Amino acid sequence: MTRQIFFAETGGPEVLRLREVELGAPGAGEALIRVDAIGVNRSDAMFREGRYFYSPQLPSTLGYEAAGVVEAIGEGVTDVAVGDSVAVIPAFQLTDYGTYAERAIVPASALVHRAADSDPIQAAAAWMAYITAYGALVEGNPVAAGDHVLLLAASGGVGLAAIDVANRIGAIPIATTRSADKEQRLLDAGATHVIVTGEENLSERVREITGGRGVVTAMDPVGGPGIVETIGSMAPGGRLLAFGLLDPRNDLSKGLLDVPGIELGLYTLFPVTTDPERREAAIKFIDASIADGTFKPVIDRTFDLSEYTEAHRYMESSAQFGKIVLTVQH
């Protein structure tokens, strides 16, 4: 038996519950891992609320990220072995698998090797954020060295990862935050410029920073009414990637006529993580940057697995700077 977090109805953090389940053996292409740390993401909360881009099948577990050790493998699994230290990347749907547990069965294709002496908290916090930033800034239509990149609500895990990725490829990251108390921390994290949107006009400051041109690429996890001002910060022909849609008032059509030729895309990391070649390229890029110290996830706070409700409430307060991680004591 293993403890697992689940919910039987959609709603706020209070709908989360803890249960004991019998996992059984992993099936073909699967692995059973002992979970040591779990990355907490906004997508988990949206899935729990029933606001995600696909709906839960109740009762449902949740969780895309984890770090731990392989305890059993299913038929046909050759890339990992029992005893391997691994991290779980988002390469599955939460209707099929979840990592909020002491032990979890996941697809072996969602596992990344990590050093046995590596920090599981760091490993559990890395992959969703960095793959999201990699897919947006490096893949397909990559950001060029010297280009300005606008990163909205940049104090979350993806925003901070995107600062690292932008710097890695020679781009110029412009980070935003609603309050001035995070400004210096974003500069310390590598942002070239920080715009405090609670005190400054976003589009005016972007034009000032970019010499009137606007940004070629923007990443917006929030959307909502503010997307109009974001679009006003774009250069003609620029690309705005909406990837979180945290604001329930989203209407992505607003403001599109204000900037000719702008490309507005709803972006997720799953086309990267579910395609073997693209996934391997992302892992290689991120692994090398973690190994040389260029990429290091910022951990805001850890909670014990039993504090799952408090962890979700804290995430929804938007007080964090970086990632929130659940830890599992065995």
Automatic annotation (TrEMBL):
<dbReference type="Pfam" id="PF13602">
    <property type="entry name" value="ADH_zinc_N_2"/>
</dbReference>
<dbReference type="InterPro" id="IPR036291">
    <property type="entry name" value="NAD(P)-bd_dom_sf"/>
</dbReference>
<keyword id="KW-0521">NADP</keyword>
<protein>
    <submittedName>
        <fullName>Zinc-dependent alcohol dehydrogenase family protein</fullName>
    </submittedName>
</protein>
<feature type="domain" description="Enoyl reductase (ER)">
    <location>
        <begin position="11"/>
        <end position="326"/>
    </location>
</feature>
<dbReference type="InterPro" id="IPR013154">
    <property type="entry name" value="ADH-like_N"/>
</dbReference>
<keyword id="KW-0560">Oxidoreductase</keyword>
<dbReference type="InterPro" id="IPR011032">
    <property type="entry name" value="GroES-like_sf"/>
</dbReference>
<dbReference type="InterPro" id="IPR020843">
    <property type="entry name" value="ER"/>
</dbReference>
<dbReference type="Pfam" id="PF08240">
    <property type="entry name" value="ADH_N"/>
</dbReference>
